Amino acid sequence: MPKGSPERTAARKEEIISACEKLYRTMSFKEITLKEIGKETSFSRPTIYNYFQTKEEIFLALFEREYERWNEELETIIEKNDSLTRKQIADKTARSLENREQLLKLLSMNNYDMEANSRKELLASFKTAYGKAMRNVRGILDKFCPEMSDPEKRNFIYVFFPFMFGVYPYAAVTEKQKAAMEEAGVDYEYQSVYELTYHCLIGLLGE
Q1: Please, which pLDDT band fits residue 11 given cuts at 50, 70 and 90?
Q2: Of 22, 14, 23, 13, whose CA–CA distance to 49 is shortest?
Q3: DSSP tag of 143
Q4: Are residues 101 and 38 in contact, defined by beta-carbon separation less than 8 angstroms?
Q5: Is there a smaller number of Cβ atoms within 10 Å at the N or the C end of the chain?
Q6: Which residues, 6 or more positions from 153, have their beta carbon under 8 angstroms from its beta carbon?
Q7: What does the angle CA 161 – CA 130 – CA 89 come to, to the nearest 5 degrees?
Q8: Are the C-beta atoms of residues 113 and 56 closer than 8 Å to each other?
Q9: Could you state, in order of their start, the residue ranges of all structural domains in the chain?
Q10: Rounded-to-integer distance, Cα 107 and Cα 166, Å
Q11: What is the DSSP string of 180-194?
């Protein structure tokens, strides 16, 4: 493949994003550096700067990829079903998010810093994937809940998408956090991503 070709550029970007994703499974955002990401790629760290100028840009690209993967699942719900009850909508949508732990983890981060330290064209690309997710959720409501009014559908989206920012911290609780909650006398029932999302959706759908 010739140097500088679109295919080579795309492949190297994917390799960098995948390296970041691998590290993010076991490390925090603060712990991950461009040096650490470079160690996980097949090329030298300075080469990364040909594709991404900051660590935040790499995370934003990972964020975009996670939204695109979720979009594929949302589109499958729309395309593979002729009709769904509201409980089935809640179930299938909750299942789709259950599979996207990295997306939910990224949502729980400080997105302001991530977006502020990324170039405008990369931010616009990310926002395209984000906007597509909103349209896909609206598409589910349009197809399977035609009785809902436009204001009801807009309210659903404006409640559900902010809700997603808080799912990961509530579902991915460490033993240290649990011990601290017990010591503080906080009586809390821990739930999975699926359970939290399903109950939220059922409430929004009025089932």
Answers
A1: very high
A2: 13
A3: H
A4: no
A5: N
A6: 138, 141, 142, 145
A7: 50
A8: yes
A9: 1-51, 57-205
A10: 8
A11: HHHHTT-------HH
- Of 2.60.40, 1.10.10, 1.10.287, 2.40.128, which CATH number belongs to 1-51? 1.10.10
Residues 95 and 98: their CA atoms lie apart, in Å, by 5
| Residues of the chain above pLDDT 90, percent | 81
Mean pLDDT over the full length of the chain:
93
What span, in angstroms and rounded, lies between the C-alpha atoms of 47 and 38? 9
Q: CA 13 to CA 37: how far, in whole Å?
A: 12
Q: Taking residues 54-79, what's their average pLDDT?
A: 97
Specify the CATH superfamily of domain 57-205: Tetracycline Repressor, domain 2 (1.10.357.10)
Residues 113-150: pLDDT tens digits?
899 999 999 999 999 999 999 999 999 999 999 999 99
Tokens 């760290």 belong to residue: 45
